[in-house]
Amino acid sequence: LYLRYIQNEKAEAVNHVAASLAHEVRNPLTTVLGFLQLIKSGTFPQEKTERFLEISMEEIRRTEQILSEYLSISKPHLPFQQRIELTAQIKSVVELMISYANMSNVALSSDSPQSDLYISGSPAELKQLLVNFIKNAIEACKDVDNGMVSITVYEETDQVAVEIKDNGIGMTPEQLSRLGSIYYSTKMSGTGLGLTFSYQAIRAMNGSVSVRSSPRSGTVFLITLPRANLNP
Ligand code: ADP
Ligand code: MG
Question: Which residues does the UniProt record annotate as the domain Histidine kinase (predicted)?
């Protein structure tokens, strides 16, 4: 009886993920299909047609992102640890996110100490979690004037801290308490998987996260990670 209970619970979790994934993916598919039909009708000027194609491509990119978020959440965290130089990783993620920030009218900046800072973990997971935090920060600033996101790295004796600060919409205490719960999202087309994955990945690296936020003034996430030994 006990075994069956567990199996049912697992089956339910799988159903939940499948249903939610189907829902997330169906919306962009419907949009793209609609635009393809419009384009096929041939009744629109070149300029309009190009816009339809652009929106369709954006929707396909979004679907891809949704799928990769779902995959990352269902994968166990890699036990494989590697020495990673943090400041270089952050630079490359910031570069990656610049176009998204520009598109959203948000200034993105970063500041790191000169010296090399080593941590240990999976480079792919570190990159994904930094993308998740920065993406959320940019999205929080979308509708504010002078939206700004800044990433600062602090060097401590045994740890490094990465601060991701935005002056966006912020969160209420109630929203803060739900942060990191699977599927928790306040966005029209959010998955609510980004932070769930990121918190898991940080835990897998023996790190921790803290957050300060208030409505309309912005949010500060502080990720703390242990430094790797100097001698690998
Ligand atoms: P998603 O981005 O798909 O909604 P996440 O797990 O990345 O899912 O984030 C969950 C929720 O946490 C968001 O929908 C938002 O309400 C809140 N959130 C996360 N980061 C911020 C931030 N920097 N500012 C305001 N709200 C945030
Ligand atoms: Mg997100």
Answer: 20-229
Tokens of 179: 């942060």
Rounded distance from Cα 134 to ligand 1 centre (Å): 10
Instruction: Give the Cα separation of 227 and 154 in Å (integer).
Output: 12
Question: Which amino acid is residue 182, in one-letter code?
Answer: I
- 205 is written with which tokens? 């690296």
Task: Give the sign of the dihedral formed by CA 130, CA 106, CA 170, CA 62.
Answer: negative
**CA dist 176 → 33, 134, 161 (Å):** 37, 17, 20
pLDDT tens profile 42-60: 999 999 999 999 989 988 9
DSSP annotation string for 16-30: HHHHHHHHHHHHHHH
**Entry field: residues in the chain:** 232
- CB atoms under 10 Å from CB of 190, counted, come to 16
Q: What distance in Å separates the CA atoms of residue 163 and residue 185, rounded to the nearest whole number?
A: 22
Q: Which two tokens stand for residue 211?
A: 């957050």
DSSP-derived secondary structure letter, 121: E
What is the interface pTM, i.e. ipTM, of the complex? 0.99
CA-proximal residue: ligand 1, atom 19 (nearest): 136
The pTM assigned to this predicted structure is: 0.79
User: Per-residue pLDDT tens for 130-145?
Assistant: 999 999 999 999 999 9
Inter-residue contact 117 to 155 (CB < 8 Å): yes
Ligand 1, pocket residues at CB < 6 Å: 132, 136-137, 140, 166, 168-171, 175, 179, 184-187, 190-196, 219
Task: Give the sign of the dihedral formed by CA 99, CA 102, CA 103, CA 106.
Answer: positive
- Atom of ligand 1 lying closest to residue 180 CA: 6
